[in-house]
Amino acid sequence: MRERRRRSVVGVGAALAAAAIGVVLAGTSTQAFGTTPSAPRIVNGDETPAGQFDYMAALISTDRLAVDGIFQSQFCGAALTTPTTVVTAAHCVVDPATGVTASPAQIAVGIGRALRSDALRLVPVASIAVHPQFKLLVWTNDVAVLTLAEPVNDVPLILPVTADEAKTYTEPGTSAQVIGWGNLSADGNAFPETLRVGRVVVFPDTACSKTGKYSVSGVRFEGYEPADADVASMLCASGVRGSGEIVDSCQGDSGGPLIAGEGPGARLIGIVSWGEECASRHPGVYTRVSAMTNFLIEQRALPSIAPELAPQVTVEPLSSAARVVFLAAPDGAAITTFAATATNTVTGEVTTCFATPGPVTHTGFCVMGGLANGAEYSVTGIAAGPLGNSSAAAPVIVAPDALPDPGRITSVATGSHGTARFSVRGADGNGLPVLGQRVACLPLGGGPGRSGPVRDNRVTVTGLRTDAYSCFATARTAVGTARSNPRIVHGEP
Question: How far apart are CA 489 and CA 468, in angstroms?
Fold first, then answer.
């Protein structure tokens, strides 16, 4: 059996350290990063854009934190799957010599993209659960769940792929992304401050657990012996850039996520576990998340219920259209999509639209166009998640009319003392004079709103508290008043 090379810097029972995505030129010898001008160039993965992987978390050694700081104390990655849980590799939190699991006090979870940034926040850990069948010698079931001492409610989450979804997300050749702060060099020590992403593809099981070979963009990879890679609990992935550079995770990336899919359909399909060498002709090996469904449900790291309660649905008539606004029911279910259906009460013609819930507000909206002014429509909606769909909301009858086009908010700048300055696209009265245009802001938590009249496509709204507001433009004609799509604005003190 080959020696397993963990992809954490050092496990929690020894010294803990730092982390990103390793990319090495295929077919060249490797030297330490930056040793000589003629050394083969070590190519790291791409720096992640702000806001793209907000669910990424860093595991920080509290034993080293006070002396060495966050950058030197980061030793593994993790993924925020619920507001109170992160999923990581078991080998990140188990002492390899003794098999003892670290105490929660030894680890803090860092939320943020840049390890040296003042914006990075540390969250204490309340408990650590390691998969009961994790085996140190063979690294099967390499997964652990850290429960946070306080919830993280203001960043989007990543849903673990379930056993039912596995075929869709882990088909051979599926594109995926691995993220982390791991070593940029296969032989040296070059750790980035900012999160990195590498683009890889999922390998067939036969190319992972056997001596079979698999090619990616002309680069041929060799698999592992069946005794090394147990495909029941592991999957393999690596990537190749256009110039032939191999993309792989490396030391410090352990515990970090392997992601497939985009937007609301993105799923956590793997956890960085081990490999023979970084960015070599052997693929990286990841914990197969779809095989860990029961464990993740038991640890409340994967929602165990489908959405059952219907969302609250509000319908606003527009000209030849209707806007549907959703609010998720507070039942704790994971929701990835809202869907609305409008049925013409006379002809039976059906129109649909879809919306993505916000990560914090759990609201969303969509606009159904192509409706007939003056006709009545019965509108209902559901919430959908990876485990199923909710019941349908009670129907709402709406009749589109020749209401004005209220324009839209094009930009907003918040200032001190609760001010917000808006730029607004002008309104159109649909052939009638516009009698007034305003911007109104309603607090999401309820209570009185604030508004101001639009003049020369600008307006300042004052008196906003340090809350989240739903702000929209309104326009009024003799037919009635219409409002624009909402924009979330946070008041400043």
Answer: 6
Alpha-carbon distances of 9 from 6, 365, 376, rounded to whole Å: 8, 44, 63
Place of tokens 């914990």: 287
Q: Do domains 312-398 and 409-490 have the same CATH topology?
A: yes
Alpha carbon distances (Å) from 148 to 84, 365, 448: 5, 31, 35
Return the bridge partners of 322, or none. 317, 368
Amino acid identity of 336? T
Q: What is the pTM of this model?
A: 0.61
Query: May I ask the CATH architecture of the domain 5-298?
Result: Beta Barrel (2.40)
Query: Tens digit of pLDDT for each residue in 260-275?
Result: 998 778 899 999 999 8
Q: Give phi and psi for 90, each to the nearest 5.
A: -60, -35
Q: What are the sequence ranges of the domains in the chain? A: 5-298, 312-398, 409-490
CATH topology of domain 312-398: Immunoglobulin-like (2.60.40)
Let me know how long the chain is. Answer: 493
Render pLDDT for 329-387 as a digit per residue (tens, 0 to 9). Answer: 877 677 778 999 999 999 999 999 999 886 556 788 999 999 999 999 999 999 987 67
Residue 373 tokens read as: 């002014």
E strand segments, 48-120: 56-61, 74-82, 85-88, 107-111
The torsion region of residue 173 among left (phi > 0), alpha (psi -120 to 50) and beta comes to left
Distance CA 465, CA 449 (A): 10
In contact, 383 and 307? CB cutoff 8 Å: yes
- The DSSP bridge pattern shows strands 245-249 and 21-25 to be antiparallel
- What residues contact residue 182 under an 8 Å CB cut-off, 6+ apart? 7, 19, 20, 21, 22, 77, 191, 196, 249, 250, 251, 252, 253, 254, 256, 272
CATH of 409-490, one of 2.160.10.10, 2.60.40.10, 3.90.1150.10, 3.30.470.20: 2.60.40.10
Q: Residue 476 has which token pair?
A: 């009024």
Determine phi and psi for 143, rounding to 5 degrees: -150, 145
- In Å, how far are 50, 416, 419, 423, 484 from 413, measured between CA atoms? 19, 10, 8, 9, 18
**Which long-range contacts does 378-381 make (Cβ < 8 Å, 24+ apart)?**
378/342, 378/343, 378/345, 379/313, 379/315, 379/322, 379/324, 379/340, 379/341, 379/342, 379/343, 380/313, 380/340, 380/341, 381/310, 381/311, 381/313, 381/324, 381/326, 381/338, 381/339, 381/340, 381/341
Using the structure block, give the residue that is written with the tokens 């609990």. 233
Residue 243 has pLDDT above 60, yes or no: yes
Distance (Å, whole) CA 402 – CA 262: 37
Question: How far is residue 87's CA from residue 268's CA, in Å, rounded to a whole number?
Answer: 10
* Confidence label for 185 from pLDDT (cuts 50, 70 and 90): low
Say if residues 209 and 224 touch (Cβ distance below 8 Å): yes
